[in-house]
Prior knowledge:
- This protein has 19 helices and 9 strands.
- It is α+β, with helices and mostly antiparallel strands.
Amino acid sequence: MKQHSVRTHKSAEHLPRPAQLAWKLAEMAADPVPVEPAVVEMIGNRIIDNAAVAAASLTRRPVASARTQALAHPFKPGATVFGLSAHRRVSPEWAAWANGVAVRELDFHDTFLAADYSHPGDNIPPVLAVAQHCGLDGTALVRGLAAAYETHVDLVKGICLHEHKIDHIAHLGPAAAAGIGTALNLPVETIYQAVQQALHVTTTTRQSRKGEISSWKAYAPAFAGKMAVEAVDRVMRGEGAPSPAWEGEDGFIAWLLSGPKAEYQVPLPEKGEPKRAILETYTKEHSAEYQSQALIDLARRMGPKIGNVARVKSIVIHTSHHTHYVIGTGANDPQKMDPKASRETLDHSIMYIFAVALEDGGWHHERSYAPERANRPGTIALWHKISTVEDPEWTRRYHSHDPQEKAFGGRVVVTLQDGSTITDELAIADAHPLGARPFARAQYIEKFRTLAEGIVSAAEQERFLGAVSRLERLKADDLASLNFAVDPSLLGTRTTGIFDWNGGHGEARSGLSVVA
């Protein structure tokens, strides 16, 4: 890997294209290096992981809404949509949209945390949609996803967005554009323009993850994927993008990040070096913000030691800056302590999550967020006894570049009513590659079967898993098999909007329901 310095340049200070970050990303994406077997295996794992979460979220309103919107844009050859027959195709950018929401809705797929944080699995829906629409094969899809993950992870390592309250999809848009460009075997010039265009249109604020969090949290990465598809399409037609997008005098770094005097270091593979970044990422065993994964595991470990939680006087979680200020009491969000808060808000409240995990000895993607669960008087009492503090050592470990030292957990001090204390700590989740029970293919398959039970038939599960096992050998016509269909009655309630408008009455047009 080589570190690349990235800083603002005045318009009068000529910055040649080969010196620009977007060009370097494009060169890396276009480099035709073979994809290593371990990377192919992990890409298959993450395709399974995404499908698992999509299956569990199919009936949720945001997913049904996105699917209805996609169905209003049928297209041939087009791309598939989770839950629908492979014969039902929609325009690829709308497939990326619908599938992106399904994958992200439960906050239950893969993650990578460094200078910033990310969910690199969000790259899979747009790259796969374009691959299906354009008749690519499994080898091209794998190359595209390896490049998307590499771009995403390297940007997250080098450029912090959240300190400037920029949402992390600003790294996802360029990554998805790069991955699409790689899959399509586009020239460096085209990928360069597409990466910049995608950055320009996917830069949004972190309000989507602050205060009362709405369903836009799930839609945000889907929006970035949709914009990436459109950006690549546009530049393939010969159009350009704002350049240089990162380094320009009025560009991303100068006005949205640390300013004209800032300098960032972004690591990228050398020419001919394999794209291995996906191997540094990790998935979730629990459907909750990643910083809560180790703390959920710690809660179920501490539960038997504490016994009756009525004995608890206070719980203090000593943790990283990010955990304290984003999902802890350092956020100063009263919604994080409100039993009537949305699922998305509770997902970003480590106080609520730790209380429920302590009481229940674990976590469930639906039951743990149910309104009746959040409103239990005993849970509310325990929840409100929990606070977080930033510990500089946990912050240092959170930002460490050494994978053996990097940590996302914390130390928990439980003070009982009699004044005695119980203390324990856990640095990484059990499912982390370095954890007590690291996820491999068998665990990804188990997660898929668990979340798909009662939704995706056993035969359909087997067919889908069989397709993933042949990933690199899939022919163009086979890429549609990287999807699953369900009984139409399981697809949730139809929603209506502009795309379904009929005579000004807001009724869905014939044939445009989510079960069609």
